[in-house]
């Protein structure tokens, strides 16, 4: 195989990490190449520039670090907030609990994740509640159980829902009262901001969040996430932690420069808005399809629905990729910054046809 | 700042990770973009293709994993070879000992590094010897000291020298006899192969190496290293280890595809040969400069020399970047795949002038 | 306060670790003193003798190690069976999950505990079932979730019940088929053997158990547990692990010699039988007390019952100590090797009175 | 074998942990038995009493924890002072470096030990110097090397010497200036105090020590060490750390009560003085033995000497146990709280005879 042009390729709804990088990110990636030699390990001009850009974006003098992926971002952030004998409160569907292969436990050398209840209306939407946090933090006080030290929110959640500003504030208030730090897994932070229409600071430090893992990959980068410490006291020696953990890029510019493409003209927000709109379009297209049971309404870039298994099989046979992980035919359809309306429409049509069959 | 063309920029001799990516790597990076959507986590076509390519390169059915950087590659490879109460034998100047911020100890949960003696002729060239290994492995047998389990060689070494095929074989023979596994830190593996003119298999599995960390970044990639297990029994469940350790790229294609650029037409070897040649050119140019004390002859892409401190200062003042880390004015001048002869000549001229001043 | 004789002191039902050491253990503890100087770290005569004694007890050539407490025994045993990216299947009430402060996660550097379902009849008795194991081990196969590697059974369970020989065998059979190792937390192993009336080998290696943590403390020792590897391949370098983990006693004889007291004349079994009998006596005495809801029948040395909260308060006010940890007034009454029938009767009488009030 | 009286048994000079427990410790161990039932995990009366006793001994409101052995005491104390990417400065002969099988690295999840120079007069006496600390702490400031965070002193040292009050103060002063915490490995703390004739506070908190691991085992306990935090801010949540690390005794009274025996009538000091006196006696007896090269004068309870290898062999053949670990016949003869003058004299006579042969 050699490089060549190709026709518009098929798109999938499996994950927003199936998409490539957005044009702006690609342009700045190549731009980082132009200087030839550049100091390594973040001493380059782009890294400094993006860090400054993120401080401006959040309107505060936060500490910014770039790491390679979300597991590392979350795990290192959590490890900086707790010791091995502490615990982290999260929802039962939290990515840190279900899809990071014990990364948080590994990087913290053993911190336990305590999952909130799973039966309430909020839990069914993938959210923690103040009550769930309060319940977990007050359940045990003895030294035979890890002491809660952090509450972790995923924003947007793994179920494609979004915490309102008030919801974040309410949880953070409990956290402060109980001496917990607040971590936000923002793998799809941009999608949440796009939905809420708020300022990025409103659901982070102004609401009580101490550390944000700001997802770049799913927003259009080739590789990389930012760890943003709003409470700078918590990032003491974090640079050493990143280095030791194998997360310090030597040619850092190729990790950081593409962020300039996201920040330029609020591309990050445009990318997220587009992905959210595509999810809404898909949701609308499926609303009246017999056999499709839409679960909750999408608030970010994912649609959750139950389909008859034969329909699932038929769609897979046609080449569509998507995940099933909810019992009884529940499927996740994920849209990304590059999902084309035509892809949505074609997929919806095939679903309709498959369910009719 | 916006993307734009620039004149030929200044080059440095600080590190081969100051260089950008080589054209072939860049081309394949962009090529990985063309398909639009692609399965994540290594299920894409490029990752499969590169893995196959590396198996062909090494002429054996090895297990290949891609991680983000050298600290991670070395640390995860070592962690797969030893438990926390084991130890790793290496040279006193080994990168794993001196420049990874305790990464190997962290990922292995405490394995100790045992450094060989530092006074012999070999040690002054940055090399371990069979005697040094034998001495360390037989020094203690009691349970109050970590049990040696791995010997780690850096090829090319941190001092720009290269182990001959026979030297690797001799150390590996001791290792096998003493039930140690053999790890090779090949951050500059290509430079060693270029120097030796041997087949890559000759200084790896055919010589007794169990695991190679094959450096991509310093060879011309934007980001990424390959961990190559020649003894496949050692890579059991390594995919889980990589995931947990935050080293599994979701958009893996952007990490793996550029390797196709290195493999294409033996670009990896051409890049290394060029860097080595530039070091030889610099060494030759400095041979008769009064005040410059060249240390050992370069065998890879680095020149080591002692300069008068005023000369060092003058060169830094002119904008040249390079590291000093040997007592008494010792400097390291590192060449890379893109170092231009003109840069070498200009640098040598400035050194000559600085030393004359 | 100076040492002196005292009248028969009050006994409690809080835990079997409220009891002191049994006379036989005390006698051998002091006997270990008689030789004056003795080689350290287990090279003494008693340690060798007890190890041999345990091999005889289990009728197999097992590997035996002595550690200080149950958290260490379980955690080190589990760490020897799995890597950080593996997982351990256990019941939701398993001590390793609920009362070791994340010890297993710490010593294994991150292994996750996967708890079985909690709603079945077996689960309400604190037991894992083959189905629960099968369900957890087949739930996920992807690298984003820790790979199951061990199943851990507590025998007797934390709810005072006992797995039958057939139950252990059935779980071990699933484990073997799924390539899981079998760990038995035997903090109250003696109590289980006493109940089943089987040979100790019948519910351990003959039933498929790979490693047993044989509890000494609750059986009458002042301090110490034994880790017994029936599969000796799994104990490779375990002595180094114990040393590194701070679990190697220098004056080992004081840890090991008291075990001779337990082995002598099957004192371990007599101690357990007595404790079990006291629990049965208490259970019988409470059977017809109005207001007391006995939960399941005791199979080992604990009685579980729900009492009205005022009754609980009244008992506490009288100086009785016991734990409440089941919602709705559930209490645990634990008997030990030294619980006197008079104490049981007095406690039962006070419960009757408190419930009548 | 059954318990019985024996004649005065042979004594050894291998280690002070070859000795049993001193009578006062044994008495209180048995006294802890008298109450029958007693709350577990340190809620018992003896643990509270000893903690108070240690606070009185040190004349300050320190935090006291009891753990099982010295590796655990040192490792947990160090882990509470540094993170995985930090480092600990110690002497090249420090027990934490040479004889704890990587325990400090394990419990801290990777902290590196940086050893001071080994050639100076102080180093030959097993001591760190302010210059050595300063040199290590200023050597590197980059994030590629673990950041120094703690200096660890062994008092008395592993070579049987003792830091003067001024020496401790001088090192602590450097430490404070460089933002390092000061840890004291006091496995033989009592022997140092006995030699210096100072108050225990003078070489600990009054001199700038933050945490002391106060050795009980070598001073006459059957098992156990105390971790004493003079800076109470450093012991935050340390109880959880101890529990998770498998160092919390359930029947704590048997670990803590014997300390009452050490504190009673300053038995700890009497024991140490006796051991020191026996070392002095042995040193004096060997002073004029031809063939014996005494190394430095003993300041605590160890004598170091070089003997001809045939003499060493002859002594071993006679049944004497001692360690050789210094090249060229260097031997360590260690005295303990129970070493009899007759044993010293007999050993010295046999050395004289062996060297004469």
Automatic annotation (TrEMBL), chains A, B, C, D:
One of its GO terms (molecular function) is threonine aldolase activity. Its EC number is 4.1.2.48. It catalyses: L-threonine = acetaldehyde + glycine; L-allo-threonine = acetaldehyde + glycine. Keywords: Lyase, Pyridoxal phosphate. One of its GO terms (biological process) is L-threonine catabolic process. Its cofactor is pyridoxal 5'-phosphate. It is an enzyme of class 4 (lyase). InterPro entries: ArAA_b-elim_lyase/Thr_aldolase (IPR001597), Low_specificity_L-TA_bact (IPR026273), PyrdxlP-dep_Trfase (IPR015424), PyrdxlP-dep_Trfase_major (IPR015421), PyrdxlP-dep_Trfase_small (IPR015422). It comes from the Bacteria. Residues 13-305 form the Aromatic amino acid beta-eliminating lyase/threonine aldolase domain. Pfam families: Beta_elim_lyase. Catalyzes the cleavage of L-allo-threonine and L-threonine to glycine and acetaldehyde. Homotetramer. Belongs to the threonine aldolase family. This is L-threonine aldolase. It comes from Sphaerotilus sulfidivorans.
């Amino acid at each position: 195989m050699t490089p060549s042009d190709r026709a518009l390729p098929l798109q999938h709804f499996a994950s927003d990490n199936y998409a490539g990088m957005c044009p702006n990110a690609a342009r700045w990636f190549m731009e980082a190449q132009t200087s030839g030699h550049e100091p390594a390990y973040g001493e380059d001009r782009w890294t400094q520039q993006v860090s400054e850009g993120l401080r401006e974006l959040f309107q505060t003098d936060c500490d910014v670090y770039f790491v390679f992926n979300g597991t590392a971002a979350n795990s290192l952030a959590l490890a900086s907030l707790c010791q091995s004998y502490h615990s982290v409160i999260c929802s039962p569907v939290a990515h840190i609990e279900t899809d990071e292969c014990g990364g948080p436990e590994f990087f913290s050398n053993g911190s336990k994740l305590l999952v909130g209840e799973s039966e309430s209306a909020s839990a069914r939407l993938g959210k923690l509640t103040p009550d769930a946090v309060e319940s977990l933090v007050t359940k045990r006080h003895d030294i035979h159980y890890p002491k809660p030290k952090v509450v972790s929110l995923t924003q947007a959640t793994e179920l494609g829902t979004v915490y309102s500003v008030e919801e974040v504030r309410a949880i953070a208030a409990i956290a402060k009262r109980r001496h917990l730090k607040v971590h936000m897994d923002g793998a799809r932070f941009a999608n949440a901001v796009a939905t809420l229409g708020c300022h990025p600071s409103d659901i982070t430090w102004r609401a009580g969040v101490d550390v944000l893992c700001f997802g770049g990959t799913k927003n259009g980068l080739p590789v990389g996430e930012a760890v943003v410490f709003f409470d700078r006291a918590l990032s003491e020696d974090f640079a050493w932690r990143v280095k030791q953990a194998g997360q310090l890029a030597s040619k850092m510019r190729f990790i950081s420069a593409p962020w300039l493409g996201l920040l330029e003209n609020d591309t990050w927000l445009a990318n997220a808005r587009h992905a959210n709109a595509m999810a809404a379009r898909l949701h609308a297209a499926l609303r009246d399809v017999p056999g499709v049971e839409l679960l909750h309404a999408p608030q970010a870039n994912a649609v959750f629905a139950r389909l008859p298994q034969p329909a699932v099989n038929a769609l897979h046979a046609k080449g569509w990729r998507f995940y099933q992980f909810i019992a009884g035919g529940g499927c996740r359809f994920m849209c990304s910054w590059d999902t084309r309306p035509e892809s949505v429409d074609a997929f919806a049509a095939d679903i309709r046809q498959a369910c009719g069959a």
